[in-house]
Amino acid sequence: MGADRDLCIGVLALQGDVSEHIRAFDLALAARLGEHTPVVSVRHASAIDGLDALAIPGGESTTISRLIAKNGLRRPLLDFEGGLFATCAGMVLCAETVNDPRMDPLGLIEMRVQRNAFGRQQESFEADLPVEGLASPFHAVFIRAPVADRVGPGAETLAQLEEGAVAVRQARHLALSFHPEIGTDLRLHHLFLDRL
Length: 196
Ligand code: GLN
Fold this sequence. Notes:
single chain, 196 residues, Rossmann fold
């Protein structure tokens, strides 16, 4: 494990599985530190200042995107210097380009993302996924998941399925197509925290 200093983690709390992200990061920080600063919900720009990292949850990317604009969060997110932990809809929001004209993604991670990339038959599924940096596969839950079908030179693919990349890292940012926040396996949270 990396630096065991206290960290301020926020979760973008506009829509989606916010409480699951808060719980997972609280558990991961408790495992590393015992006493720690509680994870905070972020709805307004003032709450972003001073955070070491921000989770952007799964949910509906078009809705979260609209609420980011409405709450004046686009510029603060573009300027944010901490790490981003983006899952599913969060991964869509962080992309440079998305295969949906309604989306104006933030362009924070060098990747092109396809929404709902697994089609109707496979709207939800689970897979034991080998992930670069983890000693054994991660049991990943995919729910109407995106993939990155192009990953730029500044980013690296940590896990891949036939349809495309499902885990992408760029510096301190981690984008995941699936939902590590809903299980008990927090290895990906630790992988992320190790880099902050
Ligand atoms: N399909 C959703 C979207 O593109 C993401 C689904 C999810 O976050 N579980 O917004």
